[in-house]
Amino acid sequence: MSSGITKTASGGPASTARLRGVAWYQHPRWSRLTAMVAIAVVLTMVTGEQGTDRDIFFALREDFTGPLPWIWLGLCLLVWTVREFWSEPIRKVRRASVAKSDPPVAWVRGQWRGDRRIRQLVLAALVAVAAFAPMGLERYWHQVLVDQIAIYVLLAIGLNVVIGWAGMLDLGFVAFFAIGAYSAAFWTGALPVDPPFELNNFLVIPVAVLTCLIAGLILGAPTLRLRGDYLAIVTLGFHEIVYITAKNVEDFTGGARGVSGVEHFSIDMGFSYEWKLDPLPYYWLLLGFIVLLVFLFMRLEHSRVGRAWTAIREDQVAAAATGVNTVRFKLMAFAIGASTSGIAGVAYASKVGYFNPENFPLLASVLVLAYVIFGGMGSIPGVLFGAAFLVWLPEVLRDYVDPRDRYMYLGALLVIMMIYRPQGVWPSKRRQRELKMATEGTVDGDATAAPAGGKVS
Amino acid sequence: MSTTKLAKEPEGTEPTAAPALLELRDLRVFYGAIEALKGVNLSVREGEVVALLGANGAGKSTTLRTASGMLSPRSGEVLLRGERIDGIKPHNLVRFGIGHVPEGRRVFARMTVRENLEMGAYRFKSPDQDEMDRIFGLFPRLAERSSQLGGTLSGGEQQMLAIGRALMGKPELLLLDEPSMGLAPLVVQQIFEILREINQQGTTVLLVEQNAAQALQLADRGYVLETGTVAMHEEASALLADPRVRAAYLGEIAE
After folding, report:
1. Can you give the three-state secondary structure of chain B, one letter per residue?
2. A450 vs chain B: nearest CA distance in angstroms?
3. Is B61 on the interface with A (CB under 8 A)?
């Protein structure tokens, strides 16, 4: 490559040297510094004075004249310095400790890798912590935990199947959430039309799953030939259809006024229990759903189905040539994602009791997508974390910033994240190497085939 | 579902002669209004290597892709051991013992070499380790790079991987679309030697090639396609000697 530049550049050796050289600011180290400065600015804005409607420069003036920006800048620079200049010594120390087989570290690592039972035990402990830790929180956070975090986590692990594993961009995901919620309302008799017979909320779940499955197939079947952007547009249209239908078919859905009086979950088998207004029992119920689905999906990821999805994501023609039924597996991903969303819908409707079409805006679809990408597409722990963190964030920001600005900071975080860590917080191994290869130029962005007529061994 | 189309070919085949492994009868394939194949007849007998030659746009790849189920013919028949297989989807055809190495190799760029090979055995419950060892034996280069990602391999290695991946499905008939594309002569030679070995180990090969000299040295018989029809069909050695073939596909070689 450099020889080509030497030949074409007319300005002589000095200019070729300039063209060939890498400017200091192009080094990844400095771009990471820029990221840290950006984070410092955002943190200053979050923690500093909030703006007023009358004077738009008030906050800027207040925040960036005092000591606050310097404190944050100092902290961020410290993190950066440690990361850039001391990471090598730290790594060396760690490596040395592992080499010496430092008993606790190496033992733990060995146990984790070697013994399945240990892994299961740790996961069980994590679930137990997740189950009991919220008991110490205030009631407000219980609400957030159920209405927001748990529901969005459910949505995110469903969307992860469609996007992260099968590689299909779905922007209408919340439509299935709406279908699930309206199914719950219909079968518990909360809609203006009466169901043929009323069902217990738990029995609604399979019905809603089936409904969403069918809706997923209806959406999936005509769009299977589409890819990427085109598919995204179609799913967008699907969302709009569901949303407008919910809004306008008043006789059936209650229209814009919404639905009220959806029954709570209840059990009546020998003993009876009803989930009432207290959010904690709902939290445990949803946690149960999440644990169950995560367990199922993890098995799925490493099964033949998961491998077929990976192959389809990589190259559909090659996948078909190796015997993967691409149509069936793409539909399956769609249907599984849709039904997960449906479960979330039933749970949401039963919990809040009242909802209207405005609870299912397009923004929700986009946010779920953002959670999945933020956490790390295709990685279940990443997606769990991404959804939980990004739903939690605006809620804590409520205490610090003008509540109307909350999503602005979320936006800033997403921008910074996508520029500097596009693979997400906790990426799957495969996704990580995909991005690495794309940046190295080994494979194109959407890496289909090898360079035709390209390199020779 | 499409497998129910499988029916014994009632007439036209003599009961005494064993049917060819693959037979294309009067195949007509269209891309929209363009007629890419205008009645192609072709047969591949068990154990053979058959080469399909022709200029760009002659219909070679179309023929191969019709045989592997990626395209379906408007009329005509594709027969495998005398049974009709046209219209069967490619992923189902794999189960009938047809392995397709698509044009442009199309290895799974972000899977390792081993994972690529395992994907090739997708039609089985689990990949056959002996088969994988055999493939690593055929392509020692792949064995060395078994944990490297497909996309980081060189063009020649990717071609080897694509062939190996198709072999993992244990095909009786291997369809290859331009295995020499974009490869250095030495690598092409290596790959053709391996193809000969694969054939000797019992796999029938139908191969589309631009590199007529290499292909005809390997093949038993050859077909020359011109604008969607079979222009010539002879023993490979006869084609190699034919002055018209020499002029059109081998370059005028003065000897």
Report:
1. CHHHHCCECCCCCCCCCCCCCEEEEEEEEEECCEEEEEEEEEEECCCCEEEEEECCCCCHHHHHHHHCCCCCCCEEEEEECCEECCCCCHHHHHHHCEEEECCCCCCCCCCEHHHHHHHHCCCCCCCCHHHHHHHHHHCHHHHHCCCCEHHHCCHHHHHHHHHHHHHHCCCCEEEEECCCCCCCHHHHHHHHHHHHHHHHCCCEEEEECCCHHHHHHHCCEEEEEECCEEEEEEEHHHHHHCHHHHHHHCCCCCC
2. 6
3. no
Report which of B98, B31, B45 is spatially closest to residue B68, judged by C-alpha positions.
B98
Q: Inter-chain contact B183–A456, Cβ cutoff 8 Å?
A: yes
Among A308, A314, A449, whose Cβ lies nearest the Cβ of B111? A314
List where CATH 1.10.3470 sits in chain A.
Answer: 119-440
Tens place of pLDDT per residue across chain B (255 aa):
444 434 444 444 444 456 789 999 999 999 988 999 999 999 999 999 999 998 888 899 999 999 999 899 999 999 999 899 988 999 999 999 999 999 888 999 888 999 999 999 999 988 889 999 999 999 999 999 998 999 889 999 999 999 999 999 999 999 999 999 889 999 999 999 999 999 999 999 999 998 888 899 999 999 999 999 999 899 999 998 888 888 887 765 544
Asked whether the beta carbons of A168 and A231 are under 8 A apart, the reply is yes
What is the residue range of B246's domain?
A: 1-9+27-88+175-182+209-250
Residue of A nearest to B184 (CA): A456
Nearest CA in chain B to A314: B108
Question: Any CB–CB contact under 8 A between B185 and chain A?
Answer: no
Nearest chain B CA: its distance from A307 CA (Å): 8
φ, ψ for residue A262 (rounded to 5)? -70, 135
B152 to A442: CB separation less than 8 angstroms, yes or no = yes
Q: How many domains does chain B have?
A: 1
pTM for the predicted model, two decimal places: 0.82
How far apart are the CA of B165 and the nearest CA of chain A, in angstroms?
A: 8
A chain contacts of residue B104, beta-carbon cutoff 8 Å: 449-450, 452
Q: Which CATH number is B57's domain given?
A: 3.40.50.300
Q: What are the chain B neighbours of A322 within 8 Å (beta carbons)?
A: 91, 94, 119-120, 122-123, 165-166, 169
> Scanning every residue of chain A, which has its alpha carbon at the shortest distance from the alpha carbon of B185?
A456
Q: Assign domain A119-440 to a CATH class.
A: mainly alpha
Is B135 at the interface with chain A, CB within 8 A?
no
